[in-house]
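Give me the fold.
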Amino acid sequence: MTEKSLLSTLQGLCEGASDQRSFIDAEGYLELIRPTDDGDQEPLGLAVRIDPADDKAYLVLRVHLDPVVLDAKRVDAEQVIQAAADYLFRYFEEESRFLVTDLDCYGDPDEAGILRVLDDEDLDGDPPVAVELFGVQLSPEQSLEELGNELLGELVLAAPIEVGGASQ
């Protein structure tokens, strides 16, 4: 499948959305975005990449988790990743496997309420900065062809994936 035909297929999956979401070419990925009221583009945490090793297309998902869903004062990366994967099992089969490619902690909002990515120094500081949102980036092992357009269409319309009222 060429990138052009893949983009055409992905654009077709956006047709049921009411917010004019679409895919754009973004640095090696086809990224799902929607226009904002001020004319910008908001990424929705779903992208597709073509792996040059096997020439297949793979899904990349970003799951935002509100720390409240973890129901603990302190958590480790494994707990956060497991909570994100557990949420995705509403779309994927239980035996599905995911490659985790990124884990971010957000907190310490600025005057506009925008959360910044926290560094290790922030988390280990005295006192540590509280995490207000986790972002986990995962990629299912199956290629898009193996996942099928029905599942992909569900995910395109469900994006952004936010668990527990998490929002950016």
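The beta strands are 22-26, 29-35, 41-51, 56-65, 98-107, 116-117, 133-140, 161-163.
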